Amino acid sequence: SQTIHQWPATLVQPVGSPLSLECTVEGTSNPNLYWYRQAAGRGLQLLFYSVGIGQISSEVPQNLSASRPQDRQFILSSKKLLLSDSGFYLCAWTGGGAVDTQYFGPGTRLTVL
Amino acid sequence: GIQVEQSPPDLILQEGANSTLRCNFSDSVNNLQWFHQNPWGQLINLFYIPSGTKQNGRLSATTVATERYSLLYISSSQTTDSGVYFCAVEQGYSGAGSYQLTFGKGTKLSVIP
User: Fold this and answer.
1) Which of A60, A99, A109, A111 to mutate to test the interface with B (most CBs of B within 10 A)?
2) What does the pLDDT look like over B32-53, one tens digit per residue?
3) Dihedral sign, Cα of residue A49, residue A97, residue B65, residue B83
């Protein structure tokens, strides 16, 4: 069966520090991968999605970036964190074929101080 | 872009009670999903239901695509049903099979014993 992993689970970083969050999927090949952010107030905001290795689409201009170095690995990065980057970051995947359901990882809680 | 509105924003139920959650969307969709986010942040897909009716145990969902709304029914609620329920839609075909979902702000459900 398919499994999605995210790490770290929680992270506290100072303003201006770099960031690297990792997401990996097991048990499937060529998935579509997504990064979402959930700030206080509950809504989920799509940040990036990828339909293949090296293919990244950005939905929101910001100081974050994403990369997909391998088929089942998706990385969210920042060179310098802002206070407004605090939130709950969720990685998700779909099968990449016909319209399909999205499955979410456990998330990373990021606090920028 | 498409607007997704969920109601009510908050709901408190006595254990054993039934409830109906509503999701309105502003344009035609080809993908609608309901998710449950538990108190620890994990998002679980409940239904993929762009139209019609589905049932899974105590939960059922109905989407009337022509009238642009979907309903999630919870019967005989349990404390484990607590959390936030999200409706998410995809408007039309986003291209390249990317399946970009737009989320509503959710309904926070609290089931008390």
Assistant:
1) A99
2) 999 999 988 999 999 999 999 9
3) negative
Q: State whether A32 and B45 contact (CB < 8 Å).
A: no
Chain centroid, CA A9 distance in Å? 12
Check CB contact under 8 Å for A97 and B97. Answer: yes
Closest CA to B22 of B101, B87, B81: B87
Q: How far is CA A17 from the centre of its chain?
A: 18
Closest residue in chain A to residue B92, using alpha carbons only? A99
Highest CATH level, class, for B4-93+101-112: mainly beta
Q: What pLDDT, in 10s, does the model give residues A83-113? A: 999 999 999 998 755 557 889 999 999 999 9
Enumerate the β-bridge partners of residue B31.
Answer: B90
Band of the pLDDT at B96, cuts 50, 70, 90? very low
What is the count of structural domains for chain A? 1
- Ordered by start, the domain boundaries in chain B are 4-93+101-112
Cβ contact, residue pair B100, A46, below 8 Å: yes
Minimal Cα distance from B93: which residue of A?
A: A99
We report the CATH number of the domain holding residue A87 as 2.60.40.10
- Asked if the model's pLDDT at residue B71 lies above 70, the reply is yes
Domain that residue A9 falls in: 3-112
